[in-house]
Write a structure and sequence with these properties.
The chain is of the alpha+beta class and 208 residues long. It has five helices and eight strands. Strands 1, 2, 3, 4, 5, 6, 7 and 8 form an eight-stranded mixed β-sheet that branches. Helix 4 packs across helix 5.
C-alpha cells in the first residue's frame, strides 16, 4: 500500500517520512511524479490549503494523499505571517528572506512580547474519505538566528521547555515535540485505526 506526500518541499518530506516510518506503508514523494507542478494554495486557512493539496495529488495520482499546511502565528504581529508563512517575503521567497523579514518586523518588540506558535493542519484524502488533524507548539521568536539544522523559521523559533530553537535540535528531537510531528502522530493513529477500511489490504497489516 502506498501514500503520496503532497509536497514539493524536500525538508517537509524528510520530516514526514521520519515520523511515519513505522507505518506498514510505502511513502512516495512528489519527486516521483514530475508531471505534477506547483499546486496553487489559494485557501484562506491552513485547513483549506492542506485539503487543496491532498485532493489535487489524489486526483492526479489515483493514490491516497497526505498533505500539511503550516503557519507561524506571532502574537505581536496579530497572528501574521500565518497562512502566508511560506511566502512572507513574496511568492519566491527563500527561507532566509522570510526569517530576515520577520526579524526586521520584530526588532522593536521586547523579549516578553515575542510569543508565537507554530500550527500545522494535516489532511489525508482517499476517495470519499477525508481526514483532518491539527496541532501546535508555543514558542518565542528570538532576536537572532540560532542553530544550523531544520528549515524555514526554525532558527528563530525557541521552545522554552527544550531550551533550544528548532534549528538547534536534531530531526528526531524536533519531530517528537514539533507542531508537524504531533499532527503527524495524530494522523498516524487515525490511519492505523482505519487502514482496513481505506486500503482493503488486510494481508499487509500485522495480525493481532
Amino acid at each position: 500500500m502506498k501514500i503520496v506526500l503532497a509536497t514539493h518541499n524536500k525538508d517537509k518530506c524528510l520530516e514526514m517520512m521520519d515520523v511515519l516510518s513505522n507505518l506498514n506503508i510505502e511513502l512516495l514523494s512528489l519527486h516521483e511524479f514530475p508531471e505534477i507542478g506547483e499546486i496553487i494554495e489559494d485557501g484562506a486557512t491552513l485547513e483549506e490549503n492542506a485539503l487543496i493539496k491532498a485532493r489535487m495529488v489524489h486526483k492526479l495520482t489515483k493514490l491516497p494523499a497526505l498533505a500539511d499546511d503550516t503557519g507561524l502565528e506571532v502574537d505581536a504581529l496579530g497572528g501574521d505571517p500565518g497562512v502566508f508563512s511560506a511566502r512572507y517575503s513574496g511568492e519566491n521567497a527563500s527561507y532566509s528572506d522570510n526569517v530576515n523579514k520577520l526579524l526586521k518586523e520584530m526588532e522593536n518588540v521586547p523579549n516578553d512580547k515575542r510569543m508565537a506558535k507554530f500550527r500545522t493542519v494535516m489532511a489525508f484524502v482517499e476517495g470519499e474519505m477525508e481526514l483532518i488533524v491539527e496541532d501546535c507548539v508555543k514558542g518565542i521568536i528570538t532576536n537572532v538566528m540560532k542553530g544550523i539544522d531544520g528549515f524555514g523559521y526554525d532558527p528563530v523559533f525557541y521552545v522554552p521547555e527544550m531550551n533550544k530553537t528548532y534549528a538547534e535540535m536534531s530531526m528526531k528531537e524536533k519531530n517528537q515535540i514539533s507542531h508537524r510531528g504531533k499532527a503527524l502522530m495524530k494522523m498516524q493513529k487515525l490511519l492505523q485505526e482505519r487502514l482496513y477500511k481505506i486500503f482493503h489490504q488486510m494481508e499487509d497489516l500485522p495480525k493481532t
